[in-house]
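Cast an eye over this sequence plus tokens and explain the fold to me:
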Amino acid sequence: MLAALRDIVAHGDPQIEVTATADKSTLVIGHDSLRFRVRASEAGHVYVFSGGTDKQHFQLLFPNRLDKANRIGAGAELVLPRKSWEISAEGPAGDSHLVVLVSRHERDLSQVGLRQTDEPIPSFDLLQAERLWQQRAAGASPYVGVPVCSGCSDAFGAALLAVREVNREAAGR
């Protein structure tokens, strides 16, 4: 999944600068929750993709069923998650990777392999994600969808954020 996340960043437009910073770079499993800040040089729509520490999950953390308001203003700071939802450090120990994508236009993600379930945070079907990865076209990530408006710019900026999850013993707590 890390390769897929890096691929999203690699296909970003350098004109759209995105920064993502975690409040804590190390989270204690069963104790801490992730909180991070996003800034973009242009106004747009924010999408957050995640590959968990177990390497068995690939998710669209945001927008989600609990929080669909994914607009960000140019130069504005967006703090996620908001109060209506949280991301707890659940392990296993290791590095979690997130990609924060800011697109000039809202994106249609209906064909990128997200499972249609009642879960608040949608996950990618890993078999379909693997097929999409194998069939991807040069110069495009198969997971970022397309703009909802036909003829609109497909440009987006993206940043990779890594957060370490550790056991209590390793954290000395």
In short: The radius of gyration is 16 Å. The CA atoms of residues 133 and 142 lie 6 Å apart. The chain is about 15% helix and 35% strand.
